[in-house]
Specification:
By secondary structure, the protein is mostly beta strands. It has 1 helix and 36 strands. β34 and β35 form a beta hairpin. The termini are close together.
Length: about 375
């Protein structure tokens, strides 16, 4: 993390106003840095003893890292059986000091102990009449709840009606099987194209959408992309809506267009292929990581589909600290360092953090934040900072 920078193409500190006081957070040196690189850090969870559980999607590995000792132990192996995984993704705190590993490649999630022992897996996909229900755990809390974004797919070929403009955040307690819809989310705009028996769903470039995260206490924080503001939905059902946040939109340049198209053809983390099919006794959904070095066919975007300015924040921009602060990555000018605004429970901005070039926040721990820095060889280096 580098000292907070000034305005970047209209998205600097002075371009946001939310009615609250905002402090500049300057973190210049990592508290600790791991000496060996990763290929693509997709998930991170700090264990109670300070070790870090990391999922690396490109090399398909789960690793427990001791940053103080400078050691890393790979657990499990690639495969589809017990103690195996195909494409490890998000890592979520679970009961005791265990961790839920979301494995899209095997379409399941599995609890793993702090010692590396694998528990019983649960499927991500379940049959619900003529539909397949997809439950991808996105967050957990200390009460034993799992949070996911409600998605249901028909077993027939998708149509425009299969791309709703909103979805719900669901809180589910596996012990009691109780589910509650916590909030509604605006979905990104998408275009559905068909050809050769395939269906491609493509997001509209730089479309506005909502994003969310959950504190360890179970409070859900939301960033609204239209009418930019922060909202909270507490465990007890109380809702709070922060003030509207004024900001100066960042102009989209040709560099932004090229970078967006490149990200679609060569997604961070290698990308995933998702296949759906109906037939026989029902249908199935399978997910598999894209082969290393493979490039997907990028979409063709009509000139009228390119907006002139960026929304307040990109997709997957929101994360929550265990204590309940909300970090929102902001859109910045092309090639500018990433920047995060920090909001309190009242929706007021209380700080701004800027990262070095090609760096991003990958997780939080007890009073610390973990950052992945990508070098010129596309290797990722794990760093830890006090916060």
């Amino acid at each position: 993390l580098l000292p907070v920078i000034g305005a970047c193409g209209g998205s600097g500190d002075d371009s946001v106003s939310d009615g609250g006081s905002s402090a500049r957070i300057e973190l210049t040196e990592p508290e600790m840095a791991f000496s060996e690189p990763f290929s693509s850090i997709i998930g991170l969870r700090e264990l109670s003893d300070g070790r870090v559980f990391v999922s690396d999607r490109l090399v398909q590995a789960l690793v427990i890292v001791d940053m103080a000792a400078g050691t890393a132990d790979t657990i499990g192996r690639v495969g589809g059986g017990p103690g195996e995984y195909s494409s490890p993704g998000p890592l979520l705190p679970w009961r005791g000091d265990s961790t839920l590993v979301v494995d899209m490649g095997n379409t399941r999630y599995t609890p793993v102990s702090s010692g590396g022992g694998f528990g019983i897996s649960s499927p991500l996909m379940t049959r619900d009449g003529e539909s397949m229900r997809l439950v991808i755990p996105a967050a957990t809390d200390r009460h034993g709840n799992i949070y996911y974004q409600a998605r249901t797919f028909g077993l027939s070929a998708p149509s425009t009606s299969d791309a709703p403009d909103s979805s719900g955040i669901v809180r589910w307690n596996p012990a009691t099987d109780r589910t509650d819809t916590v909030a509604a989310l605006r979905e990104p705009e998408r275009r559905i194209e068909r050809g050769g028996g395939n269906v491609m769903v493509t997001p509209i470039p730089f479309g506005s959408s909502d994003d969310w995260a959950v504190s360890w206490n179970g409070d859900v924080g939301l960033a609204r992309g239209v009418g930019f503001r922060i909202e909270w939905s507490a465990m007890d059902g109380e809702r709070s809506i922060g003030p509207d946040i004024e900001y100066e939109p960042v102009a989209i340049t040709q560099g932004d267009r090229d970078a967006w198209l490149e990200a679609m053809a060569n997604p961070a983390g290698g990308g995933m292929f998702l296949s759906m099919q109906a037939g026989g006794g029902g249908g199935y959904v399978r997910a598999a990581p894209a082969p290393r070095g493979a490039r997907m066919v990028g979409p063709e975007i009509a000139e009228e589909d390119w907006p002139e300015v960026k929304p307040p924040f990109p997709p997957s921009a929101v994360s929550a600290t265990p204590e309940g602060e909300l970090w929102v990555q902001r859109h910045v000018a092309f090639d500018a360092p990433a920047k995060y605004d920090v909001y309190d429970r009242n929706g007021h901005r209380i700080g701004t953090v800027a990262l070095g070039n090609d760096s991003r926040v990958v997780g939080f721990g007890d009073g610390v934040v973990y950052v992945a820095r990508t070098d010129e060889d596309d290797l990722q280096w794990l760093e830890r900072y006090s916060r």
